[in-house]
Amino acid sequence: MEMLWIILGVVLVILGILGSIFPLLPGPPLCYLGLLLQQFRAEKPFSVQFMLVWAVIIGVVILLDYLVPIYGTKKFGGSKYGIWGCTLGFIAAFWMGPLGIIFGPFIGAFIGEYIAQKDSTQAMRAAIGAFTGFLFGTLIKLVTSLVMGYYLLVSI
Asked: pTM of the entire structure?
């Protein structure tokens, strides 16, 4: 039975790492679930405190994944219209699949900023900020997932 938990944990961590890169798979939560399954082994590899700290980290990473593209839009000079466009583009993107999640905030920020300013150069800057934020959020998810993968391997 112990081998089953190890195999399931490894599969979930691999899916989590892939999900950190490819949209639509919840990367860090899958990795956390892989760590959580290890607690069913005969000898629990992680303390309760360790698991609680990682639960908080996962919550923060999920929150940052949504907020960082908005921050990027603002940091690159986007107005509230660009920020709203980024947010609405992200929400609408779920129906467009993986490419929508990647480009939805970009397109939304561009359209929102263009409506407000009628300046395609400024709109493009805001859109690039949204995309940069998306890339940074992806990096945060990937690093978090890789660290959890490391802890899983060490526990084996």
From this structure: 0.82
